[in-house]
Write a structure and sequence with these properties.
The protein has about 70 residues and is mostly helical. The chain has 3 helices and 2 strands; from the N terminus they run ββααα. Helix content is about 65%, strand content about 10%.
């Protein structure tokens, strides 16, 4: 993609996502989709709040593993 600078100069932008940006997108997608869908149901079925949070963390880690 090319954009123009303040003096009409053309600059080329690279399409690149680093490790931090990719991880942030992944975590944001997992948390953003899961946090609004099933928290009440998870808390009702888990024996305690720490177990529920542990399941949530484990699911996020499992989601981030490729393959």
């Amino acid at each position: 993609m090319e954009v123009s600078g303040p003096e009409g100069q053309s600059h080329r932008l690279e399409r690149h996502l680093g490790w931090v940006a990719s991880t942030s997108l992944l975590v944001g997608g997992v948390v953003g989709s899961g946090i609004f869908l099933v928290p009440q149901e998870m808390l009702e079925n888990a024996p305690s709040v720490p177990v529920c949070l542990g399941i949530w963390v484990a699911a996020g880690v499992a989601r981030s593993v490729p393959g």
